[in-house]
Amino acid sequence: MSLQFLDVFGKSSGGRRQVRTTSGGLVTILAAILIVWLLVLEVQSYFSVGLEPTLVVDSARDERMDIIVDISFPHVPCTILNVDAMDIAGEVQADVDGQLLMADLGPDGNFADKAILDRQKEIRENAIAARLANPDYKGPCYGAAPDEENCLSCLDVQRAYAAKGWQFHDGSGFDQCKEEGYPEALEANKQNGCRVSGRVSVSKVAGVLHFAPGEPVIGSGRHSHDLSAYNLPSMPFNFDHTIHQLSFGEGGETQLDDPLRGFHGATDQKQFAFHYFAKVVATEFHFLNNTVMSTNQYSVTRHGRPIVGGPDEDHPNSYHASGGIPGVRVDYEISPMKVINTERRMETFSELLMDVCAIIGAVITTAALVDRSVYAMDRVLREKKNR
């Protein structure tokens, strides 16, 4: 089959009404390919969807919000790591690590030897069980609580000392801790780390999520921690960390609702604090299948500094004030606005039909003009050649 047979752009020549040419067949093929390609793109555009954002006032301020965390601290054992949550409404959640999964990490960054951890847990539980079995046992609080109070476990002594603002150190001065093997466990685990994962329920107001060593000391308008065990010279601790997830509410799968995913806060200094400032915006996604997903997007700025003060290692002309608590602090602020993203098709069916007609008409018209121009030029050249 010759290209002349494919020519759909008829040309009149002399007495003959229609002339088909090879160039016309070639133009027809190119026009057909172009039409098919453009139609495919147009159909893809019709089936594609986009998000139309709308900004409204967030009226659901009395709801609660989950902060979802998954952070590894390779140089702070779970034994002394503590997590607190506070907000400007006055709600204080001390020791929220009880709501979280605290998994010990070995020196290699993998999960620690479970057999060793189980043995330490068994010693601790057996010691507490023996005291509970003795109805006459009354554990001393070593002056940190009234005589009538009973400090049954090493943890009770820790909390009593924290409430007084006293230093606990490694627990070797307390019978409960020695019986539970706390000093030995602290020494054995000093090269270990901790991976914290789970969720913390907070009010939708500005607040703080704080990862720090030692029991919290909260009272008289202040918030601090017992750093005596952390600051022991024999303990090689620091708050180098990796954020696997930090999101406010469900989601956490994009750079908008989890911009810190995979971030590594690096330090080898023991007295170093990391500070993250997050601006949280409530976000809803309304999909074409009538489902709704609520999440929170946030932007974040970060800062790290040595708490001993002095010049910055990276910027010698910058000086830091001394003071603070080593750890990781996340300050979050809740925006009064909400973003509603509504999923919509990029164009309607009537727009698709109009675009299809426009594509076919435009390509055929242009191809016809090209074919006639080529044919006219060919005739002129032939006439000149035959003279």
From TrEMBL:
Protein topology in the membrane: Multi-pass membrane protein
Cellular component aspect of the GO annotation: COPII-coated ER to Golgi transport vesicle; endoplasmic reticulum membrane; endoplasmic reticulum-Golgi intermediate compartment membrane; Golgi membrane
Compartmental location: Endoplasmic reticulum membrane; Endoplasmic reticulum-Golgi intermediate compartment membrane; Golgi apparatus membrane; Membrane
Keyword Transport (UniProt): yes
InterPro entries: Erv (IPR045888), Erv_C (IPR012936), Erv_N (IPR039542)
Domain Endoplasmic reticulum vesicle transporter N-terminal stretches: 4-93
GO biological process: endoplasmic reticulum to Golgi vesicle-mediated transport; retrograde vesicle-mediated transport, Golgi to endoplasmic reticulum
Keyword terms, alphabetized: Endoplasmic reticulum, ER-Golgi transport, Golgi apparatus, Membrane, Transmembrane, Transmembrane helix, Transport
Pfam families: COPIIcoated_ERV (PF07970), ERGIC_N (PF13850)
Endoplasmic reticulum vesicle transporter C-terminal domain residues: 141-371
Record-stated family: Belongs to the ERGIC family.
Role according to the record: Plays a role in transport between endoplasmic reticulum and Golgi.
Cross-referenced PANTHER family: ENDOPLASMIC RETICULUM-GOLGI INTERMEDIATE COMPARTMENT PROTEIN, ENDOPLASMIC RETICULUM-GOLGI INTERMEDIATE COMPARTMENT PROTEIN 3
Protein name: Endoplasmic reticulum-Golgi intermediate compartment protein
Lineage summary: Eukaryota, Fungi, Dikarya, Ascomycota, Saccharomycotina
